[in-house]
Amino acid sequence: MSKKWIRKNSMPALMAGLAAVLLLLAGLQYRWIGEISEADRDRLSRGLDVAAEQFRRDFNRELAGVASSFQIRPGDIARRDWNFLADDLARWTDSGPVGLRIDALYIHEGPSDGSAPRMLQLLRGGQQFEEVVAPREVQAALDALPRPFGRGGGPPGPRSTYWAFLPDAPALVTRLVSRPPGGRGRGGNGRDVYGELVVMFNREALLGSLLPEIESRFVPASGEQHYQLAVVDPATSQVLFANAEIPAEDFLNAEQQLPLVYTVEELIARFAARRGRPAGPGGPDLDSLPTEQRPERSFSRAVVASEPNRGGWVLAARHSGGSLAEVVSGLRTRNLAISFSILLLLSVGLALALISARRAEKLAQLQMEFVAGVSHELRTPIAVIRQAADNLAEGVVSSPEQTRDYGRLMRAEGRRLTNMVEQTLQFASSQAGKQRYSVETLLPADLIELAVAESRSEIAESGVELTLDVAQDLPPVRGDSSAVMQCLRNLLSNAVKYRGQTKKITLAAVAEDRLVRFDVSDFGLGIGPEDLPHIFEPFYRGRQAVDAQIQGSGLGLSLAKEAAEASGGTLTAASHLGSGSTFTLRLPVAEAQGADS
Predict the structure, then answer these.
(1) pTM, two decimal places
(2) Number of alpha helices (DSSP H) and beta strands (DSSP E) in the chain
(3) Distances in whole angstroms, Cα of residue 268 to Cα of each of 260, 276, 283, 303
């Protein structure tokens, strides 16, 4: 395997390898993003569960705080002395949470010694209970109270009070029970039932103040973890509270829906799981549930729950972006877009790097060819000049005619040598950004005359016939005189070199649409269609020129195009293989007021 073959095929092999690596990376990223999406789903689902649970926990804690504020003393209940509840209400009012307000206390007192049951009310701020007619909402709350309620079958045990939350009122309701000194009471489990205590909440304060205050404790205002919460009444399909203004059906169809108030079964199951005990028959009852300790002679625990299978308020939670499937799909799409955008940028970067490396390799090759070509071209005129000088020095040349021939030969080779050095220096100056141009008003006829005069010797020595076709009264043009002259000289020199077997070149000038066009044509080798787009590149030489062994550095046309553009003009080429080429220089016409004579 030759080095040339390796050099030729190394770049395609490298590009194929990099493309394979990028495809593999794309496949891995697609798989990783799928795994990330599943992790996002789990994370968002857990976050939604945590947000809903925190809201429920805080709301139930506030209700439990209200319930535990009323110290149910068996002795006071047995004496039907209810005034102690006024003191409990006053203490709670002083220290209760902001946003929760108790409008009134009601006691539905059971019959005693033949007397009929009656309804007592303690107005807020009052100290005595007064008999009243039961308000409709209070009677509705009592009618909704299951009989019996608590523990799914009987009154609570001796160490706890069970409170039911009735959302329609809204109110907390508990049985007023007492355990007599001995034996079993009428209510079972050693307790007597003396009535019910109803704690009526202010509905507007509960929904409009307490719930927003609880929501603000832990739900961030914005960001990926923003969850939308609402308290919904399933019986009426009404949204009672929401932290986002979205259609009610979005909350009614939310993925996460839980009872706002803990159910009895849920409390028992939670405590059983905490203690490692079964939550079924033989498991813990309400008396085992952890609640706040009460002072001596009061029931020591208060348990707040909603009755099972009786409906109630529901907490609906959803992500701000919609359903979890929609949110995860959006995150997946975003991650895929970012990932593949990065891969695309990486691919473009690699492609540009490979193109740059290829161009650098090609440029290095052209530079090496340029150095070899220039060295060869420098060697030829130097050898001719040295040989002619040696002949003159050794006296080989004796006649005046021979001396003149040697002089013309040395002058031609010296001019050729000078042109090569000037092109090289000009290209180096251009690449270093040191070339400076001065645009002024120029006469086309003068430009042509000077360019022909400077190229006359080369044209005459090559035996070429130059035909001029210059229109009369050409308008002045704008350009840098040195740059335009250099461009025309290079074009004439190229026409002489690439004329092939013909002995004719032409230089024409004509005005067209605010421009003056200069055409330099030869009738020689022509340029192949594959070479034509590249002839203005530095160091580039067409295949026909190389095959014909025409000496050159590949800088002439590049410098000519740069000179034309520096003067505000353009340089283009048209060619047919085997029939010659035409190079066209176009310069803008000078404005009338800016023309110089």
Answers:
(1) 0.53
(2) 14, 18
(3) 16, 12, 9, 11
